[in-house]
Amino acid sequence: MTETSNFTVVMTPHMKDLASQFDNPPEKPKFIPKPEEVQELIELSLIYPVTEIPAHSKYLFRYTKHQIQEIYKSILNGEIEIPKSKSKINKKEFSLEEDFIILTFIRLQPGSNISNLIEMYGELFPIYRKNSEIKKRYNELKKLPNDKVSEILDKYTREIAYEDLFGTSTQKASEDSTIKDIKFIQCRCNYQPVIYDQLSSKASDELDRLDKISEIYWQREFSPNDLAILRSEKLKFFMRREAIMIGRGTLDFDVDVNLSEFGERACVHVSRNQAVISFLLDFNFYITNIGNRTFRVNGVVIGPGKKCRLHDEYLLDFSGILLIFYSNRQLIDQIKVALDDSMENQNKREAN
């Protein structure tokens, strides 16, 4: 595995003899954020996971997830000065877990007041949550009708059940047991993702702008014999045959697109032989699920044995490992012309 520019090119076994060409990779670029970006990063880190910050930010939407993490590490290490600011953190709605804590207190301590709630369970709330906000939410929940309370509790129960099933499904014993229900072992893909917050309008505008120029940029990435490319934020996998295997590589088992490159814990829901991307005679690309786990293509669940057609900019989601697909249109057009000429010559010979 070698680094070029901001990306890492993953080399399959037949490319390993080229590793000597990359003995001295260029240094990684250092990101020097502006004071307002540092301040916003600190504030948003109290509300969102670091990896989700760019989508909710006014200044940081231009940075990648990796860049945000590097800046955050520099702040923690004292390499970046923390600016003084009087800006206020945007209010965050109460989560199901917070509502459950308050509702449980109301049910078990009906005669108590809000001060008892804060004294007994205050440490369970996020550090950015003010006592006045907890008091306001306490009064709101206390006035809710029983059906609304039941709705909140049902949502929280389902969330806990999904988390428990997911934890169980990551254990090898669950696959070796007599329980072979697909919905059980693949519960991570069983329900549709929920977007709790609106994305930044500036981030959406930036994505639209980049979308218009992405095809031009990625066509330059292809070598003459590259049929397609799968890329993440840091890794690139090239397709140079009519079919490639996606899966979880091990020391004694090689695959073309090794999802273990994203970390050991990143692919607990990926089979060794998970999927095959094929370039067929209709000049289109197809992905087939040959594993016993599900994955998503543009948000649509692809179960074991299922197949779907791939188009440029389709997003493949292997249990949180995201890869975007691009095809080399120039090479495909050349193949079409060559095949048409071959068929035409063959027809002429048969006619004669």
UniProtKB/TrEMBL annotation:
GO terms for molecular function: G-quadruplex RNA binding. One of its GO terms (cellular component) is Ino80 complex. It comes from the Eukaryota. Residues 244-302 form the FHA domain. Pfam families: FHA. GO terms for biological process: positive regulation of transcription by RNA polymerase II. InterPro entries: FHA_dom (IPR000253), MCRS1 (IPR037912), SMAD_FHA_dom_sf (IPR008984). This is FHA domain-containing protein. It comes from Trichomonas vaginalis (strain ATCC PRA-98 / G3).
